[in-house]
Batch of 3 targets.
Target 1
Amino acid sequence: MEEVTVRGVCPEDLERVTAVEAVCFPAAEAATRESFQERIAAFPEYFFVAEVQRGLIGFINGCVTNSPVIFDEMFHSTSYHIPNGENLTVFGLTVIPEYRKQGVAAQLMQHFIQTAKNTGKRKVILTCKERLVPYYESFGYAYDGISASTHGGAQWFDMTLVLKP
Ligand SMILES: CC(C)(COP(=O)(O)OP(=O)(O)OC[C@H]1O[C@@H](n2cnc3c(N)ncnc32)[C@H](O)[C@@H]1OP(=O)(O)O)[C@@H](O)C(=O)NCCC(=O)NCCS
């Protein structure tokens, strides 16, 4: 397998991040270029990309909040980012199809969790589709039931990784 590097996002990644998102999510769920531009400016320290020699193949990002769960407004405005908040959210974890099932998303997630630990967060929280519940459980996330989120018209499930009680 090719060597995969995980590094912090930079403004030059904007076009490629937007393209990867569009390949991986239905249009109603995909974040827009404008949204990524805002996120890269607002919380670059919680936005990581996975790269091989030919370029960017996936990424993970999220804001910081005091809320125990993700709510839909967060996806649309970085004004909900509270830099010194307690919990780190996962807005999206994405790997292009050609590089899936090789542990790239796991590498991104482990890096994200380690960042949450290094910055003293209490929890990492995410919402996911039902089919991914067991995948996130493999990182230690607990299933918290159906989310209030209706992002993109889909049903979502809340999951929480507790780092500090
Ligand atoms: C979900 C997603 C990020 C997973 O990316 P990925 O890089 O394939 O993830 P991983 O390789 O870490 O794990 C995927 C599976 O491959 C398995 N796997 C990991 N390394 C492997 C290897 N070397 N050989 C065989 N299988 C492997 C994992 O155990 C996991 O198995 P599971 O599906 O039974 O749980 C990717 O499919 C994606 O971008 N999907 C579309 C967007 C999406 O739904 N994102 C999540 C929304 S929150």
Target 2
Amino acid sequence: MAESVHETILQVRDLSVSYGPIQAVKQVSFEVRAGEIFGLLGPNGAGKTSTLSAVEGLLKPRSGQITIAGYSIDSQALEAKARMGVQLQATSFQPELRVPEILRLYAGIYGVSLKEGKVDQMLEGLKLQDAAGKRFGELSGGQKQRVTLAIALIHNPPLVLLDEPTSGLDPQSRRQLWERMEAMRERGHGILLTTHSMEEAESVCDRIAIIDHGRIIASDPPSVIMETYRNDPEVIKASRKGRITLEDVFIGLTGREIRA
Ligand SMILES: Nc1ncnc2c1ncn2[C@@H]1O[C@H](COP(=O)(O)OP(=O)(O)O)[C@@H](O)[C@H]1O
Ligand SMILES: [Mg+2]
């Protein structure tokens, strides 16, 4: 990859997103560097997907600036989009297409030429050899998830965006995906993922931003957030079995009220 490690690959500055009168994202700022996994951690409705949609250029922010590898998603959209990979929902794919057909289709969309043997190589890398002849609709959840991730990476983008990539996966598939993300990080990709799993934030994220009601309320490595708040009685109101966890900090910062 051309971009060197630790360089800022995504910069979000003072981002605000509204849907009519609803302010979903309020003056959010953060950056993702090459070679790091950055997590946006927040409860349902916090504004995670809205933030990602603005980064993807799918919705126009009310205000703020977003640059990808230095290119503005607003005024240099083609250059910016060429440098990011987005994991699409499995429902975006035609269920009757076979996996190699899907890979070729998206390679074509991104202008990537798949040389002889490349598709087999990709299937092998995804541990999908057995699924090569199957239709997308016949795959298991974990297999579909691997195909959507492969497509996000097909043009080797420096920035990879994953919206709740592990929700609904079993522990084995989740662990495998974490390892794939770590391998992507080793290759110098910057990864922005959203999650509401503390375990995920602690296990794979180098840095996280806790977002709630559209605002970032803490942004640091998970261990630093823990250390900052673990002895703060204003934040830690309760813990389970006497052991304070990142989840206690998260609940302390975002409240106990259940979100729709
Ligand atoms: N298309 C939309 N129209 C109106 N309101 C929306 C739309 N998408 C999201 N919202 C609202 O914006 C807020 C943030 O939503 P979202 O970004 O999807 O949160 P998250 O991904 O963290 O669950 C919520 O209050 C949600 O109801
Ligand atoms: Mg969401």
Target 3
Amino acid sequence: MERTSHWQAVARFAAGAAMLAIGCMPGGDAGPPFKPVASIHDLMHDVIYPHAEVVWDSVGTVIDKDGTHEIRPTSEQEWERVMQSALTVAEAGNLLMMEGRAKDAGDWMLHASALIEAATLAVEAASDRDAEAVFDVGGAVYNACNNCHEKYWEKPPSAMRP
Ligand code: HEC
């Protein structure tokens, strides 16, 4: 009788230890079960670039035979669109940091953070309906793209706008 309870106790202890071990195993409590869908190439080509373009194209100056034209968002809907795109670029910086995408834990993270920071300023500029500020931070966003490409994109960034 005593013997049986001893082995029952051992079994219970073993089960408890196994559960503790599972809790410490990768995948046990390693955080949310992220499932990256896009490759870095796809993320650049289909998410980051098109949305950065919306921000860049929203303000500027065009000179043609009729003179100089200022490009500005002209409706609430257009301003909303700039905000949505800036927000998408900012959050995409986080997607670049995910395991499986991040190329390293050093400079890659700094470049992705710089993108988040610049794009967040673009979100603020758009929500302030401040076209000058959107133009200025558009340049900062462009620099954030370029700085990372110089280090991590092997071919010259010819697909980028000048
Ligand atoms: C943290 C680093 C990083 C940042 C920030 C970054 N990129 Fe990239 N980008 C890359 C890498 C790496 C590649 C090469 C991907 C590949 O070909 O696999 C790339 C490739 C591209 C491409 C080429 C995709 C294709 O069609 O082959 C475009 C376009 C691009 N990036 C746009 C942008 C824009 C626009 C921004 C800023 C708004 C940006 N990237 C910010 C790392 C970055």
